[in-house]
Amino acid sequence: MRHAIRRWWLGRAQARDQREQVRLQAARMFADGMDACAVAAALEVSTKSAYTWRRAWAAGGERALASNGAPGPALQH
Fold first, then answer.
1. Mean pLDDT for the chain?
2. Of the four, 1, 46, 68, 73, which is 20 to 30 A from 39 by CA?
């Protein structure tokens, strides 16, 4: 059971990293002058997400789109 939970947790971490990469790719597209609708279509995400990311990027750059890590307490090894 313990190993199954660990595999599940690591899978979530990998998915979180992939989502962060999509947000950072969006930031580069915004920097190149693409609008939020074009970014949403290119990355196959909702326009709502693209507009949210654009506002965050405009306010704080790529750091604003970085993952904050997993919620809750750190996983014990």
1. 85
2. 68
SS3 62: helix
The first and second tokens of residue 3, run together, are 């190993």
CA–CA separation, 34 and 39 (whole Å): 6
What is the pTM for the complete model shown? Answer: 0.75
Percent of the chain with pLDDT over 90: 61
Q: What is the spatial distance between Cα 55 and Cα 58, in angstroms, rounded to a whole number?
A: 5
Residue whose C-alpha is closest to residue 36's, from 47, 22, 23, 45: 47
Exposed/middle/buried for residue 64 (C-beta within 10 Å: 0-12, 13-18, 19+): middle
Region for 18 from its dihedrals, namely left if φ exceeds 0, alpha if ψ lies in -120 to 50, beta otherwise: alpha
